[in-house]
Known about the structure:
Elements: H1 2-7, H2 10-35, H3 43-59, H4 64-88, H5 93-115, E1 131-132, H6 142-146, E2 148-149, H7 151-169, H8 171-179, H9 183-188, H10 193-219, H11 231-241, H12 246-270, H13 276-295
Antiparallel strand pairs: 1-2
Helix pairs in contact: 2-7, 2-10, 2-11, 2-12, 3-4, 3-5, 3-10, 3-11, 4-5, 4-10, 7-8, 7-12, 11-12, 11-13, 12-13
Amino acid sequence: MDILEIFVSLGFWAALVRMATPLIFGTLGELICERAGVLNLGIEGIMTMGAMVAWMWVYQGGDLWTAVLVAAVFGALFGLLHSGFSVYLGVSQHVTGIGITLLASALSYFAFRMLLPDVTTPPKIDPFKPYPIPGLSELPFLGEVLFTQSPLTYLAFLLVPMVGYGLYRTPLGLALRMVGENPMAVEAQGIDVHRLRTAAVMLGSAFMAVGGAFLTISVFDAFYIGMINGRGWICVALVIFASWRPGKALLGALLFAAFEALQIRVQQSASAFIPYQFFLMMPYVLSILAMIVMSRRAAYPKALLVPFRKGER
């Protein structure tokens, strides 16, 4: 009966949408990178950097939307660094991505401690407030769940059809998908494969950083160490779950967010009988099972993880 009460409560569904937002940004970013043939395992660190710089910008007196832009710029710069090693030099994308995660995470924590050396508890900022969309927010149930959210949540949901349209309905999207399938064919058309892959990794990394920024300037209103909490790795798994398609990526993000929101509420009511660690584990276990089922039929980009060198056949 408690489970049924959770599923019919407005708070559960509103929290689901809110929790899915950073996953949508991160998954779309990773999807763009992998569609271009580059696995970006730097996502965890890039999200951490985006969370820190956005929060620090607002804490130092900047406005919220500029903080989003600053986070995107920092994310794009780390994407450029990733591309320099993995695309131009042909270094292992796994090693480069893990290195980017370690570098970005360490720099975030170092910069935070250097700029605020005497802080013992995370300072608060004035974050984005929920923005009710006139008219739509008054709808029964859906109004509170979908149309009374942070502006960044609306942006995340808008990006899904925009990315889908860009990938499947534009010449640039066709070139980007082809560079992840057959880069030699792209080169034969006179398109610079390295530049196109670099642009895709920078754009995807910018999305990832905005996903991290959402947590600090829209949800928690503070930055603290470990706040990304594995969301970046979940986004990598969600790309496989989605078979590299934006629409399915949205579904996967909502599914994991539902598991997360459910475990929080079930934990509160059943923690006296079951160890809380079981509920913390539950979203990840269910996500792994869902990914296994979906990935059996997944058609991955053929040139993913394959370095491209001009002139080689």
